[in-house]
Write a structure and sequence with these properties.
By secondary structure, the chain is mainly alpha-helical. Helix content is 44%, strand content 6%.
Length: 106
């Protein structure tokens, strides 16, 4: 069945929460999970036991958080009809994250 794919999709919201999202009314946040595995391949998420799903749940949360942070840190200044939205000041954000022990010294 599709139950475990749905469970994986639900974990994306934990990754979003790690970056500060809280699922406000009208946020438009959604997640989709699907499998591209052929029917006769290795076990799919639908076939895995509940305990075997834990590493996949952790991977989904971490991958979601990483994707959001990557998009924030690589965004560029955008100019549009309603004005300009400046890019995130990466050096300042990293300094603040380290000062507040949100990021390590890498």
């Amino acid at each position: 069945g599709h139950r475990n794919l749905g469970r994986l999709a639900e974990r994306t919201f934990y990754g979003m929460a790690r970056t500060g999202a809280f699922g406000s009314n009208g946020s438009g946040d959604y997640a989709i999970a699907f499998s591209t595995a052929p029917a006769a391949s290795a076990p799919t998420p639908e076939q895995l036991a509940n305990d075997a799903m834990q590493p996949l749940f952790e991977a989904v949360v971490e991958a979601t958080e990483e994707a959001i942070l990557d998009s924030l840190f690589t965004a560029r200044t955008v100019e549009g009809f309603h004005g300009t939205v400046p890019a995130l000041p990466v050096a300042e954000v990293v300094r603040l994250m380290r000062r507040n022990k949100v990021a390590d010294e890498r």
